From TrEMBL:
The chain crosses the membrane at residues 31-48, 60-80. Keywords: Membrane, Transmembrane, Transmembrane helix. Residues 107-151 form the NADH-ubiquinone oxidoreductase 21kDa subunit C-terminal fungi domain. Residues 8-92 form the NADH-ubiquinone oxidoreductase 21kDa subunit N-terminal domain. The keyword Zinc does not apply. Pfam families: NADH-u_ox-rdase, NADH_u_ox_C. This is NADH-ubiquinone oxidoreductase 21 kDa subunit. InterPro entries: NADH-Q_oxidrdct_subunit (IPR053229), NADH-UbQ_OxRdtase_su21_C_fun (IPR024549), NADH-UbQ_OxRdtase_su21_N (IPR019721). It comes from Malassezia brasiliensis. PANTHER family: NADH-UBIQUINONE OXIDOREDUCTASE 21KDA SUBUNIT N-TERMINAL DOMAIN-CONTAINING PROTEIN, OXIDOREDUCTASE 21 KDA SUBUNIT, PUTATIVE (AFU_ORTHOLOGUE AFUA_4G04750)-RELATED.
C-alpha cells in the first residue's frame, strides 16, 4: 500500500508515527503547554466560582480535582498533536530531522521494528491510525503497532 504524498512546508519525517516516537519528540514547549492546560482548567473553574458562587457546602474540591484531571488529559492530547505535526512536516521540525537521522543511523526508530502482525494486519493498523491525531478530541487513537508504512525524511 503506497503512502500518499503531501506537500508540506517542512520535510516529512514519518507519516504514521509510533506513540513512543511522538512522545520522545516532545519539546520543552510541549511540556509547558501541557502544564499550562493542566493548571488552566481548575483555575478557570475557581475563577468562575469566585465570580458567581454556587454556595455548595461540599463537592467543590471534587470538582477541582476532576478539572485538573481533565486539564492534564487535554494538555497531553494537545502536546501529542503538536509533536505529531512536526513529524508530519506541518510545522518547523529541524531538531526532529536531526534526531530522526541519528536514530536511523543507530537503527533504533520507534515503530519501525519487527512486527508480529501479518502484512495485511499491519496495513489495517496503518489505515486505522494514519492521521488519527487530527481527531484526538473526538476519539483518542494512537499508533501502538510496528509496521512498514512509515516514510523516512526525504533528506536522508
Amino acid at each position: 500500500m503506497p503512502v500518499k504524498e503531501f506537500e508540506t512546508p517542512y520535510p516529512l519525517i514519518d507519516t504514521d508515527p509510533h506513540f513512543k516516537r511522538v512522545v520522545n519528540n516532545f519539546r520543552p514547549s510541549d511540556y509547558t503547554v501541557w502544564a499550562g492546560t493542566t493548571a488552566a482548567f481548575p483555575g478557570a473553574l475557581f475563577l468562575m466560582e469566585q465570580a458567581s458562587p454556587t454556595r455548595a457546602r461540599r463537592g467543590f474540591g471534587t470538582s477541582l480535582r476532576l478539572a485538573t484531571v481533565l486539564g492534564a488529559i487535554g494538555g497531553f492530547l494537545y502536546a501529542y498533536q503538536r509533536s505529531s505535526f512536526r513529524l508530519w512536516g506541518w510545522s518547523e521540525n529541524e531538531p526532529e530531522q536531526e534526531r530522526a537521522k541519528a536514530d536511523a543511523a543507530a537503527g533504533k526508530v520507534p515503530g519501525m521494528g519487527e512486527s508480529r502482525l501479518s502484512p495485511e494486519m499491519q496495513g489495517v493498523a496503518f489505515r486505522n491510525s494514519a492521521f488519527s491525531q487530527l481527531s484526538l478530541a473526538v476519539l483518542p487513537w494512537f499508533n501502538l503497532v510496528n509496521h512498514k508504512y512509515h516514510e523516512p525524511s526525504k533528506s536522508e
